[in-house]
Specification:
Elements (H helix, E strand, L loop, with lengths): L1 E6 L9 H7 L4 E3 L8 E4 L17 E6 L14 E4 L20 H11 L3 H8 L5 H7 L1 H8 L4 H12 L2
Parallel strand pairs: 1-2, 1-4, 3-4, 3-5
Length: 164
């Protein structure tokens, strides 16, 4: 899949996972909505959960890279099929162990795994010392989400983790 990132530039450039992906030609950064292509857009405010069925929507995956403080709904005006990631736990050094507070690379790798592109997700995470930890922490839920038929099934599986 093509990996694209709408880049806001409001995080520390030295810690920005999207910029690192772009340096290794693993993602394309876009500075405006007009240049960001249509695709499956990762949006925590979306009404539908990402599922393997979304693979047919587009061959492009789009994430928004911005600080958590500015990640309001207004920034998600990108064109495309907006989908929320289900429950996953961060492995990055800043938010380790926190649910839903993923870096851009964690979100992209999780989405790729759910969409059946696990090897590509692993390749993105391989550029980070802690990348393998993300897959280890989330191995069971990612495998279960990737085996779901649609968003409804993903939400049902997610409910099992949230009820724990």
């Amino acid at each position: 899949m093509e990996v694209h990132v709408r880049y806001e530039g409001d995080d520390d450039p030295a810690k920005c996972t999207a910029r690192k992906l772009a340096r290794f030609d693993l993602a394309r950064l876009h500075r405006t909505d007009r240049t960001t292509p249509y695709g499956v857009v990762l949006n925590p405010h979306a009404e539908r959960a990402l599922s393997p069925a979304d693979r047919s929507e587009s061959d492009r995956l789009v994430a928004l890279d911005c600080s958590w403080e500015s990640a309001g709904e207004a920034l998600f005006s990108l064109r495309g099929a907006h989908r929320a990631l289900p429950f996953l736990v961060a492995a990055n050094p800043v938010n380790y162990g926190r649910p839903f507070e993923l870096t851009t690379v964690e979100a992209l790798a999780a989405a790729l795994t759910i969409l059946g592109e696990r090897e590509q997700g692993e390749a993105l995470l391989a550029k980070f010392r802690w990348g393998h930890t993300f897959l280890e922490l989330n191995d069971e839920p990612l495998s279960r989400y990737a085996a779901c038929a649609d968003s409804t099934e993903v939400v049902a599986v997610q409910g099992e983790y949230l009820d724990r």
